[in-house]
Design brief:
homodimer, 303 residues, alpha/beta, Rossmann fold, Pantoate--beta-alanine Ligase, Chain: A,domain 2, six-stranded parallel sheet, two-stranded antiparallel ribbon, 8 helices, 11 strands, 34% helix, 20% strand, Rossmann-like_a/b/a_fold (chains A, B)
Amino acid sequence: MAIREPEIITGKEEMRKWSRTMRAEGKTIGLVPTMGYLHQGHISLIKEARNHADLIVVSIYVNPGQFSPNEDLSTYPSDFSGDIHKLMSVPGGVDVVFHPHNLYDYGKIEVEVEDERERREKGQVVSCLEERRLGHETWVRVENLEKGLCGKSRPIFFRGVATVVAKLFNIVEPDVAVFGKKDYQQWRIIRRMVRDLDFGVKVIGADLVREDDGLAMSSRNVHLSPEERNKALAVYRSLSQAKSAAGNGQLNCRVLIDMVVQAINEAGGKTDYAEIVDQENLEAVEEINSPVVFCVAAWFGKF
Amino acid sequence: MAIREPEIITGKEEMRKWSRTMRAEGKTIGLVPTMGYLHQGHISLIKEARNHADLIVVSIYVNPGQFSPNEDLSTYPSDFSGDIHKLMSVPGGVDVVFHPHNLYDYGKIEVEVEDERERREKGQVVSCLEERRLGHETWVRVENLEKGLCGKSRPIFFRGVATVVAKLFNIVEPDVAVFGKKDYQQWRIIRRMVRDLDFGVKVIGADLVREDDGLAMSSRNVHLSPEERNKALAVYRSLSQAKSAAGNGQLNCRVLIDMVVQAINEAGGKTDYAEIVDQENLEAVEEINSPVVFCVAAWFGKF
């Protein structure tokens, strides 16, 4: 297995230039957007991307645009050198890690002065963009899909996700991008955004990857104590029970949801939501008679 | 002067394919988005685009996404064959006219059925997307700049403009796009969107073009009777007076605005708004001591 170090690019213009150069050479580019602190779930996304593109760009960027002030932006785990190390072990390797410092820093603002007698452009450094209302103010909204599930308790979350993904698509200009279905609503939102805004990017969903004991892999799992982690297995266990109950003919969603919520409660967790929704429009269904997905978010540990 | 007919492309995929082929050959592409019924103002945008790109795409599409139900979508003037004729007379010509039928028709929806035993994708024709909430629902909002001026009386207008321009950028993938400063707020919004979403497109503003008598060229001028048209000259006349008053030291915006509003009233027009705003953030200023622009919208004729 060849081990090679990915090229690390931090600048937007440099990133786009790399992509355009590669595309001009006929290469296709696959993008895997991440917030770092990589685990096997991310690696599976990268392997999936390898199936669809010649070159792989992994972005590592904790996007402040999707965190509310009361959320865990400051404690989001990170380990950049560990991430690079993990990426070097991916079969086929990763070509570029795009690791921008701040995607919302637009630095110098061009101020155009209009005057018929003297028309000129002058550059001007604006020390604080917000003072003159020159800060970031453009947001992509996927207006229905963003509302339910995670969007209920995190009202600006998907606005931030859709916007940063649009930015990454415009900077990296990939042919293909891979997202995990662990974040099912996010995956549906990105697909819808790509369709509605006609991005020339193919979006691929990759399956959730679980630890051996059944816990869905997630960077935030690091916050769980061994005991909390053990309790959190109630999510997978109860979901599996609900799935097999549905397979045996229990199609009433209320009954299935109660099974899961009760199991999470009994394990000492707090359910943010537990809903059975249509796979495409994410609307809650009462009885299963079309493709659905059971979406659960729950807190274990400090909450 | 070479006279050549532009290639007419109606499909999104065909359009993108053309652009990518040309770019792979090292050509740069300039886009001039229009709603058709072209006049010399549009032609000046195309000439400007010619200064910045090897190949020119003019899009002709009346975007329903920016019209409210009570607005003039159904009466917006159109003359496609006349437009093509005009484009043939542009020095250097136009390479492609992108003329889609409906940019919001996503046709067949891919429905993915999730099942661990039987994972497959199946295609399904959805006759009415709205029924299953599968219609267009992604919108780009430039949240501050969209609010004032035209945005006050047309609350969804700039949401629609920003969204369709994002779509056109993603379909045509131009290097450069030219917008008229006649629609000053639109121009600022598009520039901000491009900066904030990191589109790899350079946005160029082209000056307003006036008829010999001073009326700003606009496709909607066709709705004016000769008498109404004559009255509408009050806009340019009073703006010129305000400009020269400012040049002579009258920097109080209230005084300058009153001059213009009064002149429009006296000519029998109805002012939608008349504001002197900062050129960059479009906020109203009370006294002129930085680069400003005087923005006016007024109705003449039926209102």
